Amino acid sequence: MxxxxxxxxxxxxxxxxxxxxxxxxxxxxxxxxxxxxxxxQCTADTRPAAERELKKKLSERSLFHPGFTGMSADxxxxxxxxxxxxxxxxxxxxxxxxxxxxxxNMRTLVLPFFxxxxxxxxxxxxxxxxxxxxxxxxxxxxxxxRVVLRLALGLAVRHxxxxxxxxxxxxxxxxxxxxxxxxxxxxxxxxRAAIRKWEQREILAGPRPDEQxxxxxxxxxxxxxxxxxxxxxxxxxLDLNGPIPTVRIAGTIVSRRGEPTHRQxxxxxxxxxxxxxxxxxxxxxxxxxxxRVSSIDPEELxxxxxxxxxxxxxxxxxxxxxxxxxxxxAGVTPHRFRRTVATTINDAAGINLAADLLGHSDPIxxxxxxxxxxxxxxxxxxxxxxxxxxxxx
Length: 393
Known about the structure:
The chain has helices spanning about 45-60, 75-90, 95-115, 125-135, 140-160, 185-200, 210-225, 225-230, 280-290, 315-325, 335-350, 350-360, 365-370, 380-390; strands at about 15-20, 25-30, 35-45, 240, 245-250, 250-255, 260-265, 275. It is mainly alpha-helical. It has three domains: about 15-60, no CATH class; about 75-170, Orthogonal Bundle (DNA polymerase, domain 1); about 185-200 and about 210-370, Orthogonal Bundle (hpI Integrase, Chain A), CATH 1.10.443. A three-stranded antiparallel β-sheet has the order 1-2-3. It has a three-stranded antiparallel β-sheet with strand order 4-5-8, with no helix packed on it. Strand 1 and strand 2 (about 25-30) form a beta hairpin. The protein is elongated and about 100 Å long.
């Protein structure tokens, strides 16, 4: 009969021997995390001290995979955060932009609350209380904090540091009701007029505005594209000579910490890659911009700085905000143009076409977050009710 093996993490009889010079050695065989038995030894001035050092070394020896930091439920939460960030880099499943976003949310939203706690002290009640208090200030912040806290604690569960993820049992966050806002036709006229006035103003010194901001707004209105997607349009993405002029939305502009702003060769999602027909007003803006582009390189960006580098999305947002503040028009953001397009197409042709234009995989996303609800019910209901319940004359 085969001799049963000792369990992983246990050791055999401790042997002692006196070393030359008078020091003492304590040694034993230890069954390691991979099932192999290895000799482990320690030396000290006395036999009892050598045995104590050996037992301490064995108790601290990792029972997990090689390179693991030896964390336990008594480790601090900041130690887990550091390990979680390293693990994301090693896995390399997420884009660098997403990793930087997760790190920012963890360090600014979550870590200040949990930095003095051990993992053992982070339970369901504490997580639930934290998220509810944060949600009172901002639902979006609470949602972002919930994501990264779940991921970090999930890593601790997978590596058997804690037995369960307390985030699995916190109460659900309640999204506050919000009606997507869109521009009216009169508001669009006012926005166009304000941009035109700013671009045509008299300049005493320096270069005149090159009208790119107005063209960018027209393309956003004519395609429903996100601001980063519009700024990432290349000359090769344009097909203006066919029976239906189109633009292919196939990238976006990203600005990551520690990297220059550059074009990413895919937009937010795979469904976001789409070819969009250009309405006449957007086509005029594109043609006007092409007259100012001297390069014929198909990789050249349609919209770029005077140095030929990509615009940052924040730069365009800031310039738009400054112009609108000067004109006394509030609430103008690039994303609101996208919601305006979604509402217009939904009212004219239904939610499915609106979702296709915006590049959404599910029309529910378009309906919940982009379309402004029309409060007017079809007046035909009055005729039906009159026919059913009206008083005879």
